[in-house]
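Please, does this match?
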Amino acid sequence: MAERFWENLSIILAERNISWIELTRKMFAGEFHYPSELNRLYQKIRHYKMEQRMP
């Protein structure tokens, strides 16, 4: 199920021309104040994607 989630999300992002970092910015808008915080959140999303786990 998690694999399908990431496949479907990748397709949606490609259709809308949105990068993973842009998605992270939109998901956590207002919740980070420093670039390092955004990077940490992005790395967490990236880790879940690589491990094929649900967030």
About this structure: Residues 2-51 form one domain. The chain has a mean pLDDT of 87.
